[in-house]
C-alpha cells in the first residue's frame, strides 16, 4: 500500500484523456440510468485526496456520498478486510455463522443511543436496511401504515422509492409504488412560512394532526425520519420537532425509526445525529459510513422489537458479509482511535466560518446549515424571495470540479451545494477546497 500524497494537483484538464477514454467505453457498456457526478476514473483514494487515472489529484468533499469517512483506504479497514479475505470470503451467516457479524452487532449495541437491551440484523445496502426496519416494525406492531416526511430520502428499491419524497430522478416512471406509505410535513426552518423560530412546534403539530386525522395513530407501524435530512438538502429539522414526533410515537405504540444512513457514524460530530436532541430511537438504520467503503448496512434497536419477526423472516445471502464486517470493525476502530467526532466538529467550525464570510459577499447563499462534516449551502436567486437557484448550484459544482474539488449538489429544488469531506481530511486541504469554492463564486 502506498499513501496518496495529500495535495491537489492538476496535470490535465478534468476529465483527462484517460478518463475520457474510459468514459467512452463506459457509455458503450454501462446502462444509461446509472449516472456519475464527475466522470473522472479513480486510481487511488486516501485521506482527503482522490487520484485519477491521468495522475490528477482532486480534493474530496464527497466521500463517495458520506461513505469513506475514515478515508478510502484506511489502514485498519484494509488490514482487517485483507486478513478476512485470506481466511474466507463468505459462508452465508444463515448457513454457518462467524464471529465478525456478532462483533459488529455488539459494537452497534454499544454505540447507538440508549442503554436498553439492543439487537441488530445486518444487510448490504441502506435501502435494504430501511425495508427491513419496516418489516420489523410491522411484525412487532401488527399494523401496516408507515409515515415519512417531505424532502425525505430512503433509497431506490420499490418500498424505499415509495418512502422517498422526490420524483426526479428517484421515482419518475418507476411506479406503481408500495401502498400504506403516508407523507407529512417536516420542520424546514429556512422555508417555514411563519419563520424558523416557530417552525419546530408548528410543523410537529401539523404532522401529528395529519397522522391522527388521515391515517389514525392506531394504524401506524412506524414513523421514519432522517435526523438530518440528506438528499433532501441537509435539512436539520427545527429544534423541538424531533422530540415532539418521538413523544407522539411513544404515546401511540408506534415504532420510531431514525434513518441515520447518511448522518450516522461521526458524520455530524456525534456517533448518531439524533443524539443532538437526546433522542433514543426504537430502531436505527445505518449504512454508508459504517464500513469504510465496504457494503454493509444494519438495523439496530430494542431487543423486543428486533425479535418480533419469526425465525428465518429476516436475512439475505450476503447480509453481513465477513469482509464487510471486518471493514466495519476497522472503520469503528479508526473512528475511536482518531476521535473523528471531534474532527467532524472542527471541520464544522472551520467550514461554517469560511462560508459565513462568503455569504456576506454573495447574497445568493440563502442558508448555511448542517452539523459536523455534513454541511451545505442553499442557493437562492435573492435572499428576500428565497427562489431556489439550481443553476448556481450546478455552475458552482462544475467550476469546482474543473479546479479539482469534488463537491455534490442535493435538495428537492436541486439548489443545495453539500460538503461531505472525509473526517480524516487535513485542515490545509479543507481550506484549499474552500478557496476553490470561493473563487468559483467570484466567477459566477
Ligand atoms: C443513501 C441513503 C439511503 C439508501 O442507501 P443505499 O445504500 O444507497 O441503498 C437511505 N437513507 C438515507 C438517509 C440515505 O442517505
TrEMBL record:
Keywords in alphabetical order: Aminotransferase, Pyridoxal phosphate, Transferase
Signal peptide: none
Keyword match Transferase: yes
One Pfam family in the UniProt entry: Aminotran_3
GO molecular function terms noted in the UniProt entry: 4-aminobutyrate:2-oxoglutarate transaminase activity
InterPro entries reported for this sequence: 4NH2But_aminotransferase_bac, Aminotrans_3, Aminotrans_3_PPA_site, Class-III_PLP-dep_AT, PyrdxlP-dep_Trfase, PyrdxlP-dep_Trfase_major, PyrdxlP-dep_Trfase_small
Catalytic activity from the UniProt record: 4-aminobutanoate + 2-oxoglutarate = succinate semialdehyde + L-glutamate; (S)-3-amino-2-methylpropanoate + 2-oxoglutarate = 2-methyl-3-oxopropanoate + L-glutamate
Pathway: Amino-acid degradation; 4-aminobutanoate degradation
Domain of life: Bacteria
SUPFAM superfamilies: PLP-dependent transferases (SSF53383)
Reported cofactor(s): pyridoxal 5'-phosphate
Keyword DNA repair found: no
EC number: 2.6.1.19, 2.6.1.22
NCBIfam families: GABAtrnsam, PRK06058.1
Family (UniProt): Belongs to the class-III pyridoxal-phosphate-dependent aminotransferase family.
PANTHER family: AMINOTRANSFERASE CLASS III (PTHR11986), LEUCINE_METHIONINE RACEMASE (PTHR11986:SF58)
Name the record gives this protein: (S)-3-amino-2-methylpropionate transaminase
Annotated source species: Streptomyces toxytricini (Actinomyces toxytricini)
Gene name of the record: gabT
